[in-house]
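User: Show me a protein chain along with its predicted structure.
Assistant: Here is one chain, sequence first, then structure tokens.
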Amino acid sequence: MSNENKRNSITGRSAFLALLKDEGVTRLFGNPGTTELPIMHAMTQQSDISYVLGLQESVVVAMADGYARASGKIAAVNVHVAPGLGNAMGALYTANFSGSPLIITAGQQEQGHGLKEPLLYAPLVPIAAPLVKWAVEVNRLEDLPMIMRRAAKIALTPPTGPVFISLPGDILNMEAAIDLGESTRVDAASRPSDASLESLAARLLQAQRPVIIAGHEIIASDAFGEAVQLAEMLGAPVYQQTVNDGAHFPSEHPAFMGSLNRNQGYVRDVLSSYDLLICLGADLLRMSVYSEIDPLPADLAVIQIGQRDWEMGKNHAVELALRGDVKETVAALLPILSARGGQDLTDRAKTSLATVAAGNWSVQREAARTKFVEMASASPIEPDWLMMRLVDLLPDDAIVVDEGIVSTRCLLNFLAIRDRYGYFGNASGGIGWGIAAALGIQIAHPERRVVAVLGDGSAMYGIQALWTAAHLKLPITFVIANNGGYRIIKERLLAFHGNDQFIAMDFKDPAIEFADLARSLGMQAERIETGEAFETAFQAANGRDGPTLLEVVVQGGETMQG
């Protein structure tokens, strides 16, 4: 090596961090092990990227998932070889559902050494590949820049999602004169052709009773305003998609009707009064448990607009499928629709919206409030009342993170969504995301209070994240609704099988003391058993600089009868 090349050389570990920085990464979420020591060594020699320590790999992926969703930026995660990647798979499953742009790396045994199958070794790429957009192992230091640049581009190109890179130790410790290259970003804010938009406008004008399902791509493309204009121009009621994982439409708008759920019969009944369904950046009626009832009425025509062509026509026939960015597509559609529809469309929309407003989300909220306000003195605390009062007492501009499963069913009946980052829910249904995601979300929005509402069962899948919240002194209020078991499983056993013998669905012997557990992890905590105590404690928690956990004892499955 010439003296000039030696002066310009760089180690793989330093190049890795330099490339992350240049791609916009400011934090590396991780849980290090022996094979990650080169990275940790390099971390001490720079100050541009901070390390956020989580105490288990699924926790750090969920933190990064929350950060990416709440910031719209790429996030980086580092886990430890095969067992670490294995631990992370549940959270990676959720990040894949969320479409979170993550670069996930794992330290790998040195090349050649893996042939001896040492402790902790397994080929990493096949493990990660099913749940990421791209998975690769670095075999030459010279290839590291190209791989990192490609990974960032792939993760951030819609439909966004996680990528995985395996980093052998010898590559990280190697030194060479390499070109770090330049980042690439793909402008994917495309729209369908003019001819397709004209056809779409004509079809929309044919509909007498259109309805809109608003989905998560509205968040990704920042299309709140465009979605509202489309609903107003058509006079169409708007429902949030069946997986309520984010803020898809402003709740207080007169056209908003609330969220669809995953009860096939209910959804079919709701949709049966319409003649055209406009699926706007949403999953088309994603369900959970099997039902013989199809949620889509047989005679209901469907139009689907979004960037994930895989979802179009996947389960139900779609009359028109337009691949494009929701914001760009609707913005281009609106003037065509207005010109074609004229005053007749304006008058029809006005009449329709007046009808919709009579039973919209705001009206439903007041009806629910009248019902639940009388539950204030219930003992144990009634979860529906708890959600109502929690929303009433939220700080201004708070962000709500929801993984309460059963206890928070009524949360969105009261929580007014006003911006695209005001609410986050679990996209995949795999529990254990909520506590850690709340940390990432708060880091992305340091000026806002985060309130995380969790079930007791969900909380135990990611409880380690409380330590990181305490360590970083993040202003998060954790509310754990403690019903002493897996109530959702009890409900489904009773509903599906008529069986009220709840085996392996309780954790009361011994009971889990969440407040004590939180205090042991370094934060203030309180166990609450009355509504009055909750109101006092919740307001106090939201006034503190750091995190607080409130364990709220709520009615559980023992109140159910067969």
